[in-house]
Amino acid sequence: MHKVWYNYHQVNSREERTIIKTTSRTRLNSEIRYPEVRVIGASGEQLGIMSSKEAQILANEQGVDLVEIAANANPPVVKIIDWGKYQYQKMKEEAKNRKKAREKQSELKQMKIGLKISDNDLNIKVRKMRGFLDDGDRVKILIIFRGREMAHKEIGQDLLNKVVDLLGEGIVMEGKPQMNGRNLSAQVRKK
To answer: Is it true that the peptide bond before 35 is cis, omega within 30 degrees of 0?
Structure first.
């Protein structure tokens, strides 16, 4: 069910007002009833201002539809186009915009690594990080220091450098590695 709003438009100099019913959907062909409309042709050229009846006749001659584009403009803007083709292009464009929005929403993934990690475990974590980076996500690498390991922060820095090297070319470190409590952290992303 469509919501219905009522807009008041001046019809002539006597200040007569008519109620024109507008719905949330786009108006087509005979639903467009304005005294004057600005008409745009099928290839985007301006055809000028004319009555909606004249615009409808022009659209019928070309075998296409008259579609309301901007109802709030003064005078309202209509376009002579193939409605089915217009809907299809609009749907494709919206899908493309949704896809772009999803791609822009990169998440921040986090990977914790202890100083005493074995080479095999490190390779597994690096492979997992590569997967995150390939999906367009950013990865926060946390090198965790336990107990007396805090005395050897250079070992943690070396491990972080080793992880970045294993991730390979095309990886950028965002900012400098930082110590936060007992963790050394750095964020990486794809170039």
So the answer is: no
Task: Looking at the chain, list the stretches that DSSP marks H as alpha helix, in order from N- to C-terminal side.
Answer: 52-62, 83-104, 119-134, 153-167
pLDDT, tens digit, 9 for 90 and up, residues 33-90: 888 888 888 888 888 888 888 888 888 888 888 888 888 888 889 888 888 888 898 8
CA dihedral 144, 147, 148, 150 (to 10 degrees): 40
Structure tokens at 29: 């062909």
Structure tokens at 100: 């772009």
Task: State pTM to two decimals.
Answer: 0.47
Q: What is the dihedral of CA 50, 43, 83, 76, to 10 degrees?
A: -30
DSSP character at residue 157: H
Sign, Cα dihedral of 57, 59, 62, 64: negative
